[in-house]
Design goal:
single chain; alpha+beta; SMI1/KNR4-like; seven-stranded antiparallel beta sheet; 6 helices; 7 strands; 28% helix; 16% strand; globular
């Protein structure tokens, strides 16, 4: 990454994204539904790319629609999921400190924030593998995590795919 370049800019450069700003959002409404302010770096990434799939692997929702962060959060807070033990040792929103989902992989892995601070910019990424038995923590922002997933030699094992497929972004409308 070039010094002074944001992770979102570096990600756009890596995947060859020339779309510019893809969408804008009423973030206050989304954050109101979730009950938390979201990281600015995530909002920037969603506004640049919109909903889409990185390297045919990692899906990031747009700000609105059926797969928005607010809708994903509501789905993970459903009683069937909440009482299933899938999230152990964590809990789902709206419980205090409950996980906030922000993306998923084509293999069924789910990516969350752990809102462990009043400052959303320092929330770590938690990744739950498809089989729901292994948690992985990444102390980085979402755009940095996505960059490590899709970059050749990426440091987001076991989710890194950059050595398997070329870095790309496919918008989903």
């Amino acid at each position: 990454m070039v010094r002074g370049m944001s992770s979102v800019d570096a990600l756009a450069e890596l995947v060859g994204w020339r779309g510019g700003r893809s969408s804008s959002c009423d973030w206050a409404a989304v954050e109101g539904e979730i009950g938390l302010g979201l990281p600015g770096s995530f909002k920037e990434m969603v506004e640049v790319f919109g909903a889409g799939e990185f390297s045919q692997y990692l899906f990031v929702p747009g700000a609105g629609g059926a797969d928005s962060p607010a809708r994903l959060t509501a789905a993970w807070a459903a009683p069937a999921v909440h009482g299933s033990g899938i999230l152990d040792p964590y809990v789902a929103r709206p419980a205090p400190g409950g996980l906030v989902p922000w993306g998923q992989s084509c293999q069924g892995d789910v990516f969350f924030w752990l809102p462990c601070s009043a400052d959303p910019e320092v929330w770590p990424v938690l990744a739950l593998e498809e089989d729901s038995v292994a948690w992985h923590r990444f102390d980085m922002r979402v755009p940095e995590f996505v960059l490590q997933v899709v970059s050749p030699g990426g440091q987001a094992a076991p989710f890194a795919v950059g050595d398997l497929v070329p870095p790309s972004f496919t918008p989903l409308d």
